[in-house]
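Per-record layout

source: Machaerirhynchus nigripectus
name: ITA2B protein
length: 172
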Amino acid sequence: QGQEKLSCNPKKENGTHVVLCELGNPMKAGARITVDLELSVSGLEDMGEAITFHLQLRSKNSPSPSNASVTVTVPVEAEAEMELRGNSLPATTVLPTSWHWVEGSRRLEDHGIKVEHVYELHNKGPGTVSGVTLSLAVPHLLGDHVLLYLLELGTEGGMNCSHHPALNPAQV
């Protein structure tokens, strides 16, 4: 007939999270009730592809083995938008025409002008992310000639990096 809010109480039973909702007391024999439940569940990032709910209708007055039980499986879809920002410091670099690379030198200036590339990976949400892999392809050779001498790679924010084999080969 009308709409009423349910009184629900979450608790743990045998290591399982249980929510008990009181539908009516007393309830008339033969009564028909439709219940819409909205559940807010957090921490689903590592739950896999679905979460399963076991729903059961029980009566305190007349326990019966025929208490209706239903299993509902809901797909979990984590949504997060990643954004990659990058810049070079300085933004533009021009080598003088008189500059020549010095083979075997361990001095920085003999390998070119220092340019720092900074990349920032941002999660714009709404969900959290884990296990993200970012692969940067940096062209360091042009034919048989060194285009960019890769000196070092650094990270901030608890990330792990695997270094490219061409990273600082002359140990400058």
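summary: The CA atoms of residues 19 and 40 lie 12 Å apart. Residues 7-75 form one domain.
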